[in-house]
Design brief:
Shape: globular
Number of strands: 0
Structural class: mainly alpha
């Protein structure tokens, strides 16, 4: 729908932003894969599990001081472009004050947090380092929020790349120095990497804001002062929503290793399994979401602006477009991870269990990508309460599987819980959107046709693979698997494009 009409300035900005964020997202995910491989082979699966245990504290704090304010800035500036400079300064001040307080508390009480909240004393040394990253992450979030709202997608896109490049470069240097000195490489390396990445992203954003400062027309004093309360009013519900969701996610991260021990695993084994899932399998599943996440981020201010201007037809077109391409991507990923999950797990991480997890989580992809894009549209429409309640319900459903399923079925009980919760969340978001926006839904065009084309692409892939020259069979498993994935994706994409042209 969005592509069928003539391209207005808004649509051109949206498409350009999507392409930039998608390209940057793919580059970052690609670099992140090499980084994950490096970490898995230096700190091991157990180390990855401990590292991912520290993140709930960071996630809860960032929900309070950064993430919600970024979203509020994006929405408010998209609807009130003339107040961009003032709103940015206001949001930044709030964010930096909160992040400073939270960083101080984490640095002061790491042992208590590790023992009483995370229930894992080994996390204590890493919490202060993670806490120091909060002010940098908050500045980064506010700068990106302004840029998304002002449709300056280049800065967030390139800041992602800067963050990843700086993190990887310095972590590799630190690891090399420690190895040369005979220093043991522990989880501390991964935590330092997080801090370094946030410093790099914040520095890049600061440079960009210095060169291209926030814009805004001269305003009356009354108009300037009027932005504070609306921004706080917009941010507080988002803050509460993110906080509760991160608390539930934190409870999940704490309970999973504990319940794995109840299933018969040792302490080290439970953290290893948790590390394999969160540090190896899930990053692969989330890799294609670079496209859908880019669309979701840019749809929020776009939809907010359309709603403010009363353009229901434009919102309907955005919903239909996001729905279609989320399903196209999700169905392709089912085929990729079901067919190639095990070869990817073995060739990349030397862990067959990571491959088995990918094969199960493959069915998660369509619902995961749908939930992200539909949730962003609902937030853009101002339905934050709806998305919050549905997300809480999905998290509670997943926690039921954590508590009841893991002791009986091990980590596979949790995987089933992830599938159930994401399916529920995606369908709930779709139902809520349908109540508000009359968008086009065509099951044949959006589900049946791409599924049939995927089966045809798989058949073509196997047919063509049979005619590959003999040396191809001697290739390293990773490169052979990558070539097969590219061939399958190419066949699927060409047939989708051809079907689209025929429909026109």
């Amino acid at each position: 729908m969005l592509f069928c009409s003539d391209l207005s300035e808004k649509k051109r900005a949206f498409l350009t932003g999507t392409l930039l964020l998608t390209a940057a997202g793919f580059l970052c995910r690609l670099l992140g894969f090499f980084y994950r491989i490096f970490l898995s082979r230096t700190i091991g699966a157990e180390g990855l599990g401990i590292y991912n245990m520290v993140h709930p504290v960071y996630g809860i704090c960032f929900a309070l001081c950064g993430g919600s304010i970024q979203t509020a800035l994006s929405q408010y500036i998209a609807a009130h472009e003339s107040q961009g400079r003032k709103v940015f300064r206001t949001g930044l001040t709030i964010s930096m004050v909160l992040s400073g307080i939270l960083a101080f508390l984490i640095c002061q009480y790491p042992a208590w947090i590790a023992s009483h909240i995370l229930i894992e004393p080994r996390c204590a040394p890493y919490l202060p380092i993670m806490g120091l990253s909060l002010p940098f992450a908050s500045f980064h979030a506010c700068a990106n929020g302004y840029c998304y709202g002002a449709q300056r997608s280049r800065v967030p896109a390139f800041s992602q790349v800067a963050e990843q490049v700086v993190r990887m470069s310095l972590v590799f240097l630190i690891a090399g120095k420690w190895a040369a000195e005979g220093t043991e490489i522990t989880v501390r390396l991964a935590v330092y990497g997080h801090l370094i990445g946030e410093i790099g992203a914040a520095s890049f954003n600061l440079l960009c804001l210095g060169l291209f400062p926030p814009q805004g027309r001269n305003m009356e004093r009354a108009e300037e002062s009027s932005c504070l309360m609306p921004l706080i009013t917009l941010a507080l519900p988002l803050m509460g929503n993110r906080l509760i969701l991160n608390l539930l996610a934190g409870a999940e991260a704490v309970w999973i290793p504990n319940r794995l021990q109840m299933s018969g695993l040792s302490d080290a084994e439970s953290f290893s399994v948790y590390g394999i899932l969160t540090g190896m399998a899930l990053p692969f599943i989330l890799f294609p979401s670079a496209i859908t996440n880019s669309i979701a981020v840019l749809l929020l201010p776009s939809v907010a602006k359309d709603q403010a201007e009363g353009r229901t037809e434009s919102i309907s077109g955005s919903v239909s477009m996001a729905l279609r391409y989320s399903l196209y991507m999700g169905i392709l990923c089912i085929g990729i991870f079901v067919l190639f999950g095990c070869p990817l797990g073995i060739s990349v991480f030397k862990e067959e269990q990571a491959g088995h997890c990918m094969q199960i989580l493959a069915w998660l992809c369509p619902f995961l990508y749908l939930a992200a894009t539909m949730g962003s549209i609902l937030n853009g429409l101002g339905c934050t309460r709806t998305t919050f309640l549905q997300s809480v319900a999905a998290m509670l459903l997943r926690l039921v599987f954590v508590v009841a399923g893991i002791p009986l079925f091990g980590i596979y009980g949790y995987l089933c819980g992830m599938l159930a919760s994401e399916m529920f969340l995606a369908l709930a978001h779709l139902w809520s959107l349908k109540q508000r926006i009359p968008f086009i839904w065509n099951a044949w065009d959006m589900i049946a046709k791409p599924a049939i084309l995927l089966f045809l692409a798989i058949g073509i892939h196997y047919f063509v693979s049979g005619f590959l020259p003999a040396p191809a069979g001697a290739m390293p498993l990773f490169f052979k698997t990558s070539g097969q994935i590219l061939l399958l994706s190419f066949c699927y994409g060409v047939m989708l494009l051809y079907a689209h042209i025929l429909r026109k």
